[in-house]
Amino acid sequence: MAGGRILVAYIATDGGIDALRLAVALAKERDTAIDIVMAMTNHEVTPGLYPRVRGYETIVEQHIAGWLDDARAEVPSDIEVTTRVAVGDSIPQIIIDQATGLSSEIVVVGSQGGGLFRRVTLGSVVNTLLHSCPVPLAIAPRGYNYPGPIQRITVLFGTRPGATDIIAVGLDRAARFGVPLRFVSLNIAGEQPAGSDALEGIERTASAELAHRARSLVDANQATAEVVEAPSIETATSGLSWLPGDVAYVGSSRIAPEGRLFLGTTATQILRYTPVPTIVIPNGYMDNS
Asked: How high is the mean pLDDT of the chain?
């Protein structure tokens, strides 16, 4: 994302602040701009009472302006930031349209609901984006407050073939951010023999070129690789060590349409139990980038 743009789907709640803080952590020291977008449906900004209540629009506009000013104040002065309100019929579609129009490299959202502290609980808008967004979607866990920049990238993948895209994204982002990379091969409930070497897992699930690049980084002590065998995703993620500045990357389901997100069962559980921000990439993302 160096030199790119991050879209924050902002709401004036704790979840919105979590998303904004994650965007700042991702942008810090990366020459990256942040676009803060408040997506609102037509009925939220248009009075539903007839005749119209005099002054209604002004009051709403004042609240929105105040919320956006507060959000802008959270962004350090050395990061370029814009704010805007986008209105339409569907919040997820507004966010997707804004991300497309702004050429966003990533959309950042907060979790929502009554989940455990520093865990993700998906709201309906986030859930819709996780099954339709055409760009990577980053989800901040509740209470996220790491100031940035990002310290390490963890790529989580399974034992079945089809991990080429997520391995490629990890290699690309680690190089662009200049941060360490960790490959984690998850073997849940003995799905398939994983072996003791995560690099061998990469060789089985990704292309030979990517496996070679991954092994070269590990040999140069610029990356690590490990296998986690566990009865459940919850056990697997709790058994991993996490840094405050970690982000985790996961891929979309193999049945996802090309160029779109579609969250599978395993990735959904990873989101639920991973205590750091998780970034989900669309199917075929690196092929289309």
From this structure: 85
What is residue 7's three-state secondary structure? strand
For residue 149, cis peptide bond before it (omega within 30 degrees of 0): yes
Phi, psi of 168 (to 5 degrees): -65, -40
HSE toward the beta carbon, residue 17, CA cutoff 13 A: 12
194-237 pLDDT, tens per residue?
455 677 778 777 778 888 899 999 999 999 998 888 999 999 99
Cα angle vertex 11, ends 272, 147, to 5°? 65
Take residue 32 and report the two structure tokens written for it.
Answer: 């990256």
**Residue 128 and residue 200 share a domain:** no
Reduce the DSSP state of residue 25 to 3 states and report it: helix
What b/e readout covers 137-155, taking b as 16+ CB neighbours within 10 angstroms?
bbbbbbbbebebbbebbbb
CA 70/CA 112 separation, integer angstroms: 20
What digits encode the pLDDT tens for the residues 259-285?
A: 888 888 888 888 889 999 999 999 888
What is the pTM for the complete model shown? 0.89
Q: 């502290």: which residue's tokens?
A: 117
Q: Give the residue numbers spanning the domain of 22.
A: 5-140
Binned at pLDDT 50, 70 and 90, residue 114 comes out as very low
Which helix (H) or strand (E) is 278 found in, with range?
A: strand 278-281
Distance between CA atoms of residues 177 and 189, nearest Å? 34
256 neighbors 286 (Cβ within 8 angstroms): no
Q: What is the DSSP letter of 281?
A: E
Do residues 157 and 177 both lie within one domain? yes
Q: What is the DSSP letter of 69?
A: H
Do 204 and 116 sit in the same domain of this protein?
A: no
